[in-house]
Write the structure tokens for this entry.
Amino acid sequence: MFWIRVEGERENEEIVMTAVLEVHDLVTKFYTLEGIVHAVNGVSFSVNKGEILAVVGESGSGKSVTMKSLLGLISSPPGKIESGKAIFNGSNELGDLLEYSPQQLRDIRGGDIGYVFQDPGSTLNPIMTVGEQIAETILRHQVVSREEAYKKTLNLLEKVGIADPVTRYKNYPFQFSGGMRQRVMIAIAIACEPQMIIADEPTTALDVTIQAQIIDLFKKFQKELNIAVIWITHDLGVVAGIADRVLVMYGGRIMETAPVNKLYENPTHPYTIGLLGSLPRLNEDGYKRLVGIKGVPLDASKEIKHCPFAARCDYAFERCWNEIPKLAEIDPEHKVSCFYRVEKGGSQYDR
Amino acid sequence: MTDKQITGSSKAHRNGIEALSQKRNISERLRYIWKLLWNDKSGLIGLILFLIVVFAAVFAPMISTADPLDQNLKISKMPPAWHEGGSWEHPFGTDPLGRDLYSRVIYGSRVSLTVGFFGVLIAGGLGMIVGAIAGYFGGRVDDLVMGIINMILSLPYLLFVVFIAAVLGRSLLNIILIFGITDAPIFARVTRGEVLRIKELGYIESAVCAGARWPRIVFDHILPNLIGPLIVLSTFEMSAMIFYEAGLGFLGLSVPPSVPSWGNMLSDGRLYLQQHPWIATYAGLAIMFTSLGMNLLGDWLRDVLDPRRRRARK
Amino acid sequence: MTDRELFLQVENLKKYYKTSSGILGRKDNVVKAVDGISFKILKGETLGLVGESGCGKSTTGRTILHLQRPTDGKILFDGADITKLSSKALRSLRPQMQMIFQDPFATLNPRHSVGKIIAEPLVINGIYKRGSQILGDRVRTLMEMVGLNPSCANRFPHEFSGGQRQRIGIARALSLNPSFIVCDEPISSLDVSIQAQIVNLLFDLQEKMDLTYLFIAHDLSMVKHISHRIAVMYLGKLMEVTDKNSLFDDPIHPYTQSLCSAVPIPNPKLELARTQIILEGDPPNPSNPPKGCVFHTRCPLVKNICKEDEPALKELSEDHFVACHLAGEAGGSYIF
């Protein structure tokens, strides 16, 4: 394949890492007519300044709900954040997001923390011009005149790669294609120079060539503005291309977390291995049968006191059914919650 | 695009009718309905009001205190029992011809419910067939049918009804027919819209792929999906018909004057609103509560049966 | 590549949609969803049809099965042009050509039990009587074949997970013993781990029952995995058709090249090191396609001829078709 050249290891950069966000034991449940949904069951992680953390999981893993809980985007009722701490190192202060009042959260959303949604079609206001929506964010969070906001908006539009910003400022969302709308969303997210952006499956709904454009854009910004990014996705290919560290979630818990190279070279949790084995590789010839993961996704309406992955795991033994495994470090920065791996020292070469 | 399953819950269902048809037995279904009602109290109130009216209509002879047709000019225009000059023999008083108002109100429910029920039956039946044909076949058939329907709907409704009633004369059957025919276009339009929506549903396409022909598609797939919206529409239209019957009665065009109907009672009491307001009032209250009850019930049904009520969570 | 015989041939297939704009609906806008494509499918193979949204691949699948009537073109099957068949003849042909749909939630009637859904094609075509023992047996066999527990035949679709619902759809498609199945994005709405299960199932079924697939998808990695040959579509036209290895080892058309380079590979070192060809701009509106080569507005190699003349699909090397004016010049491939 002529266009792929393997050049070498990713260079180790000496950056002082300071955590922008530290989440401890987040638990979120939904109380619905049909029963209680245990969406997030004790999630702890941290995000460092200027790094891209990818959160990977399938549907029902709780990845979206986790992030939405941090920003007060869970409608309550029926949702309820039962417990947990989320310390955010904002530009002004250090505080627990989960303790903030709605007003404080409103100040943070779009200000210190930007949010990029999955479907830009339904999250942009269809009756406001695109320029106004960006300017509105700026005016909401910064003390500037309308003139300045206008200039900043034009600047942003250019930065996100929208040609002819003066005309485009006055256009409405329906006059943009999906990829362009997502660029507008990114502009809104970075408008106030946030410390962190949470991107919830930002490219899932886009075509693959447009996805490549958007990922390129994100990487550019992240470097320029040194913004921390939490990138939620189910696509392990995208993760490989963009992440610094990875969080793998299942059943509302974290199964594995590691720096990206370590995760792909040495996937430890059976779920991670299963996910990687489910992927066909573009760069491989011949036919290797996909491994897949047996069984069906977890039913989040039941509260379980054992490893959520036990039913689908090839290595599950007695302990897996009686206790919930905790995240344990097996390598610097590489943590896994699995009895088989950690306690029993099992390796993927068994069986 | 990831699986849009509701966080793995296997109990997810999309709307009330589907949920009901998926419950395994009667008691599960009743319990589910009760849970939905309790959640939305206005629906419960609507249902209660509706049931009261039905009860009154069914058990009229047993709960009325007198014969509604019994005239007795000696006690005409008697006030209700709690006023001076009233008696508990005639709790709501009497009308100008000495007939017991309470009993007439009770019996009036029979007329109203009959008109409402059969009117909706005819309108619904006609409208559904016409609308389904227009929606399913589309194209020129649709254009033609909708053209006719829109023409009918653009006529001023009340004038139209009044005109026909005046021409045909006063009888229960006439009223039912009039409402049935004039309301059919509304059912037709709603049915057509729903059929257009249902046609886009994926399983219609798979039925076609399997070789199904249009009768099977219509009966097995389209009609069952129409039940929900049509039930909702029926409750609202029934409420409207009860209202209009009252209106016609007030104008003297409804059932014959001796028959106890709420509209007739309004008409009877019109001249006496100043001095003997009760003659018209109780009938008016009855109309109001019945309509209100049916509208509340219709609102609740619409919330329950609307697929957009589905709450998707990730 | 083993020698296979011709199964289905599509010649110059066109599907245009009229959308009316304007108040009186008289100003008709034509969307050329499929604009003259020709390809063949060999018996027992899987032809992958890829492209991004709006390229017309789904429409192609539906038109071949006559769920939509083609505007023009020929579809040769078993020696006859099926576009010319009467409704009745078409109906008798349907059992041989079935479809697996994208959204397993929407394509199963939520009010029917799973057993009823799978049995429906058999009942419709009068093969078995509803409620008969033999019908029940066949339904159970089908369920086992697709990996479902036969005792669940009385349950309703919502009681199953997404992957299981897709299996129900597959069982239904198999019930009439078809020889050809159009798979329209059958795994796009499923979780990754479940996608693998379904793809493996499709593979096994193809071997067991000698099925021929048209696999429509936008996920290039998955298409490469399951297909023998691949056709790339863009805005209603075919850009390149060849066997899967040639497509990825030696893509000739510029669109194919950028498509291949844009697909994420789950390998961080490779991702970091690869050079991506990132296309500028957005795909044009299908109701207003560009003149000449439909790809010229985004093509990094565009020349004048591309803006005027539409390139024909030419066979450049054995079984490798490309529609590009510039192909075959510099030895058939481009290095950026």
User: Anything to note?
Assistant: The longest strand of chain C covers residues 6-21. Chain C has eleven helices and twelve strands.
